[in-house]
Structures are given as C-alpha cells and as structure tokens.
C-alpha cells in the first residue's frame, strides 16, 4: 500500500522524500505505517525500475542535497494497475487499501470509479453476511462483547450507506445530472435505496 500511496502522491506533483513522508502522514497515516526506513528504500527501488526519476536537487536542512522525484509513464502505468487490482488480504487491510484508493479517485475514469465502489460495496455486504452467520456459532457472553459486535455492525452499516451514496453520485455525474439544493434530499433517498446484487466476491 505504501507503493500505491507514494506513486499516487508523486503523480499529483514532484517532491523529495521528506515532503512525501509529510504528505503520507497527513493523508494516509490511518491506513499505513509511515517511516523513513520504508520510504527511502522504496524510492530507490522505484527509481531503479524506471517508475520515478530524479528531476532536480535542492539543499536540505543539514546541507545535504535532496532529490526531487517525479513519476514516469512507467510509474503511472504501475499506479493505475495497483489502483484497479483487488489482492487477497485481510478485511482490515482491504479497508485501508480502499481508503487510499478513494483519495486518488479524481485521477480515474468514471467507469473505473464505479467498478471500485461496486467491488467495495459487495465486499461489505459479504462481510455483513459473514458476521450474521457467526451469531449462532460463537455466542457472546457479556455486555462488552455485545457492545463490540454492535459497534462493528454499526461501522459496517455506515460504510454501506456511504458507498451507496457515492455510487449514486457517480452515476448522476456520468448521466450529467447536477445536484441542487432542492434535489439533494431526493438524491440521498435514491442513493440509500440503491440495491446492488452482491455476490460472494470479497
């Protein structure tokens, strides 16, 4: 996920490693671990593979030059590939990955955004069904366990509602329909009633 995040930020603008770390911490620290021990080796690998390139140098605070990196066409191709793929991973990691992808949605085509939203929504429905299926198999024994499960279900339901609204918004944008103050409530209603046939895809 660090590679996806770094390439995405470098696609927005060239920057040196220190600035990249700052932006990763600002926008994505809730999703990934950000430290110099991972960032600089990653930048070195990306440059060796021709996916980023040094375009300038500037003086650092200690007098050491800082390389300014920019993404290359090869790097953009890798970034798009990583944006559209769905690796097998834990539920927690898949949620973090989607959150990172959503940050860069503005650089995708409308149809690509729709596919990613639909995939995440199906995954959430599948997760919801899975949690329900465990109720009889693993009965809870105290108030804290019940509260924890209810919190989990609430967070999941909230994400499903949000994803449904985002899908409806994307479809309206593709259709050329602009939201207005008078149509906002109607749009929200349509978004919440949107039904996506969910398969076993996760």
From TrEMBL:
SUPFAM superfamilies per UniProt: Winged helix' DNA-binding domain
Matching PANTHER family: PADR-FAMILY TRANSCRIPTIONAL REGULATOR (PTHR33169), TRANSCRIPTIONAL REGULATOR RV3488 (PTHR33169:SF14)
Species for this entry: Phormidium nigroviride PCC 7112
Protein name (record): Transcriptional regulator, PadR-like family
Domain Transcription regulator PadR N-terminal: 7-78
Entry-linked Pfam families: PadR
Domain of life: Bacteria
Region listing for Disordered, in residue ranges: 173-202
Stretches with biased composition (Polar residues): 180-202
